[in-house]
Design brief:
Elements lengths: L1 H11 L5 E3 L6 H5 L3 E2 L10 H25 L10 E5 L2 H16 L5 E4 H7 L9 E5 L3 E2 L2 H14 L3 E3 L3 E6 L6 E6 L4 E3 L3 E3 L20 E11 L14 E6 L2 E7 L5 E4 L13 H12 L9 E12 L6 E4 L5 E5 L9 H12 L8 H7 L14
Parallel strand pairs: 1-7, 3-13, 11-18
Antiparallel strand pairs: 2-6, 3-5, 4-5, 8-9, 9-10, 12-15, 12-16, 13-14, 14-15, 17-18
Helix pairs in contact: 1-6, 1-8, 3-6, 3-8
The structure holds flavin-adenine dinucleotide (FAD).
The site of flavin-adenine dinucleotide (FAD) has 39 residues, from helix 1, helix 2, strand 12 and strand 16.
Length: about 375
């Protein structure tokens, strides 16, 4: 999503763009849940990320409207909001803390009683004691979004090369990139290379160490459920995205307009492993049932695993590197779908040297240079 969204904005600015990716719109972009939830996910010590994320969310409706107009494809932006449910006294206290922290930051959320929760979401578990409604946290169908972006970049005149980048080529003085070579041996020269290969961004040959973004893979396993074809289910699917803590784990259920319910997700440090484990599927279903027992009636249509590109401070890494014409756009960790609109604008501004003054603070917040200040191994 990061490469495609950036490519789209670059084609709009008249750049000649070549996208080199063996499986565009795949990887984490395909697996993700599509939550656009900066307020629900706000975390102590991460207010710099919050400001960038809120700005990206603000840009989302226009981004989607423009993309839908251009491609004639709907991408399933849902604005019903997010409900965080509490099932025990510990959760209730955690929600009260979160509510207070959000208020301190000027963010709007509303505490609901158990009755109020059930009045907006009748299929919640009877054990739900209270909830926190975040009306501004939305969701998008990330698969439709990525497919529409791919259509938009092709319509915009970009060339798609479905090959793997084997090497980024740097001149003899290690001062500028000259292009890339694919695994098929084809060379593509370029005035600028934008490196947006998710958690693989650090591993591509040819990159000098000082230009390598410090990203690591963070595994997520996730499920997709839907009502069995042709069979009625007695429990309605939720209208809101539902989040909760169940058995000590974060769980979320994200509804799509077409009846799909996305249930996720694990967060694991397991290198580049993308196997789907039976235990993870069992735990995700157990935790989701604790919030919404009616999911038992749904068909399990997909269990998948993918790798988030994690960064040392959980903020994306976007900007020019020590090599001026090598721009990185990665490290979006749990928020790459949410951060796609702002990332694309920032990348296009950087590459064409047309960053508006209003984006300067965001550029600083995500700049690769700030990571020199972060001790190795810091962050989740
Ligand atoms: C289970 C799960 C749930 C998530 N839920 C959400 C959510 O609700 N909301 C949210 O905002 N974010 C969510 N995320 C995070 C989000 O999916 C990622 O931050 C985002 O997809 C990162 O996008 P990307 O384009 O940087 O990386 P990716 O989606 O990983 O794409 C990287 C691309 O690089 C290509 N590539 C790799 N190596 C090479 C190479 N050598 N040559 C050419 N191409 C290469 C790959 O083929 C791929 O297409 C979730 C992630 C996971 C795993």
């Amino acid at each position: 999503v990061i490469g495609l969204a950036s490519a789209w904005r670059l084609t709009q600015r008249g750049c000649r763009v070549v996208i080199v990716d063996p499986r565009p719109a795949g990887a984490a972009t395909h697996a993700a849940a599509g939550m656009l939830a900066p307020v629900s996910e706000v975390t102590y010590g991460e207010t710099a990320l919050l400001h960038v994320a809120l700005e990206s969310l603000r840009r989302y409706p226009d981004f989607v409207a423009e993309l839908e107009d251009l491609t004639g494809r709907e991408v399933g932006l849902r604005r019903e909001g997010t409900l965080i449910a509490a099932t025990d006294a510990g959760d209730r206290a955690m929600l009260a803390d979160l509510h207070a922290f959000q208020a301190e930051l000027g963010l709007t959320s509303t505490m609901l009683t158990s009755r109020e929760c059930r009045s907006i979401e009748p299929s919640l578990h009877p054990d739900v004691r209270c909830g926190l409604l975040v009306a501004s946290d939305h969701s998008v169908d990330n698969r439709r979004l990525a497919d529409a972006l791919l259509a938009a970049v092709i319509a915009g005149g970009a060339t798609l090369v479905k090959e793997t980048v084997a090497e980024i080529c740097v001149d003899d003085n290690v001062e500028s990139v000259t292009g890339i070579v694919t695994s098929a041996g084809t060379r593509h020269s370029a005035a600028t290379v934008v490196l947006a290969a998710g958690p693989w961004s650090a591993a591509i040959a040819g990159l000098p160490a000082a230009a390598r973004p410090p990203v690591r893979p963070v595994k997520g396993q996730i499920l997709r459920l839907r009502p069995p074809t042709g069979q009625a289910v007695t429990t309605p699917l939720p209208e809101h995205s539902i989040r909760a803590i169940s058995h000590g784990h974060d769980i979320y259920l994200v509804p799509r307009a077409d009846g799909e319910l996305v249930v996720g997700a694990t967060v694991e440090d397991r290198g580049f492993d993308t196997t789907v484990r039976a235990g993870a599927v069992r735990e995700l279903l157990r935790d989701a049932r604790a919030v919404m027992p009616g999911i038992d009636e749904l068909e399990l249509v997909e269990a998948s695993a993918a790798l988030r590109p994690g960064s040392p401070d959980n903020r994306p890494i976007i900007g020019r590197t020590v090599i001026d014409n090598l721009v990185v756009a990665t490290g979006h960790h749990r928020n790459g779908i949410l951060l796609a609109p702002i990332t694309a604008d920032l990348v296009a501004g950087i590459v064409t040297s047309t960053t508006p003054a209003a984006d300067a603070a965001h550029i600083d917040a995500v700049s690769p240079a700030r990571l020199a200040k972060v001790p190795a191994g810091a962050g989740r």
